[in-house]
Amino acid sequence: MISQSLSQKFSQKMSPRQIQLMKLLQVPTFELEQRIKEEIESNPALEEGNTDSNNEENEYKEADDHEKDDNSVDFEDYFPEYGEEDQTYRSASDGYQQEDKPTRQIASNDSNLQDYLERQLNLVDLPTDLDRIIGKQIIGSIDEDGYLRREPISITDDLLFSMNLQIEEQQVLKILAIIQQFDPKGIGARNLQEALLLQVQGKLKEPEKLDEFRIKDLKIAEIILRDYFNEFAKKHFSKLAQNLNVDEEDLKSAYDEILKLNPKPGGGYVDNDALVVQYIEPDFTITNRDGELEMTVNSRNSPDLHISEGYKNMVRNLKRKRQSGKLSKEERETAMFVKQKIEAAQTFIDSILKRQSTLYNTMHAIMMMQYDYFLTGDTRYLKPMILKDIAEKIEVDISTVSRVANSKYVQTEFGTKLLKEFFSDKVQNNDGDDVTTVEVKKMLSNIIDEEDKTNPLSDEALMELLDKNGISLSRRTISKYREKMNIPVARLRREM
Fold first, then answer.
1. Across the strands, what pairs with 285?
2. Domains defined along the chain, listed by start
3. According to a count of CB atoms within 10 Å of the terminal CB, is the N or C end of the chain lower?
4. What confidence tens digit (pLDDT) does each residue in 66-95 have?
5. What is the pLDDT confidence band of residue 197, given thresholds at 50, 70 and 90?
6. DSSP class of residue 409?
7. Which SS3 state, helix, strand or coil, does residue 478 take?
8. How far apart are the two ends of the chain, measured CA to CA in Å?
9. Of the candidates 138, 146, 140, which has an alpha carbon nearest to the alpha carbon of residue 195?
């Protein structure tokens, strides 16, 4: 018996223009010029500067009216196999992946990670000079992402062949354990499990900086990473909860602590002696004109890009030769090259234009939804707003709004703000009205500011005072809000 079955499979793939747009949306204003410069340097068909746009429009309009005269080349006539998409340009873009969380750039006086680690090594009182040599060899073997992927036996071999030193593997492991205590936490790990575990253990070594809830969450996280890493990696949450004998809330809190850890501990390192100064150039400006809000977009977000006139002339010449006779192999190759460059340039230009409209539409929607706030600067007027609200208003994907909100700034009459600050969840007060978490945090901050510093308020006391102000929250939620505002626990706020 022969059986047949029919199945459908749906897959979605971003086009080169979509990929290009996703990349450009994340670029801040002060980096856009450099990004454009790089594109111009890599693509001679792309130029920046003023052109006679009207003449250009008329030129192409006439070309359409006269069935594509000498002003254009029908590339599909030359290369029908390339008619749908520029394969070269596509291959350079298909590998694009977006991370939700932005990377941190941390400055240091040291030129690289190895220098920073060696400086810390020099501060350690090691028993012998040989230990220091081993330490430098280990540091030199650490990858840029902070991992030590070489086996101890390989390090001993290096020392034997390069310096004629006979070293045991145990000596290497002993010094490695010391280096793994260095900053950044997780450095020198041999795999992801060890990197995460080292970071958790590093936090637990400073309990004075933590409250009881975080200590509990980190201890659970330590057990998960040490004893149940496979279950964690496979997200077997029910099995984890059973093995750990914890409820769902505690497991989620521990899981969240793990998600905060850095999977690439060498991605940035801190030098306390160095100051980090980041220049912020606003993407938008909102001004109050006699009770009416006026929004402008930074002019640097609107570069004047166009296709090179030289490449247009090449297209015209190829068209004439095509009409007068058959193109040679070299001319066909030239036509193919020109096609790729022009299509890549046009893709970039279209992405820049789409970036401009997306930025404008996103900011305008935010301004209209938070109108009273932008008029007054009073956070009490901030309305609960999530990414989905704006995405639906401007008819784009939530991820698009997220990219704009996480990387763009607006200058107001009361300061320069990151767009992400205007998004917040809501809680209901005791009267059933919606209140933003921003306002709740402000209320909490005000209560702490006014407390008796000789006898600061516990989280339980804060919970009771918020309840009197009409906001009922759990003690754990109070603790999380306080941590997000970088407010320490009561005992650390106490003053003599």
1. 296, 411
2. 12-54+64-91+279-423 (no CATH), 113-179 (no CATH), 192-261 (no CATH), 426-493 (1.10.10.60)
3. N
4. 333 333 334 444 433 333 433 333 333 333
5. very high
6. E
7. helix
8. 88
9. 146
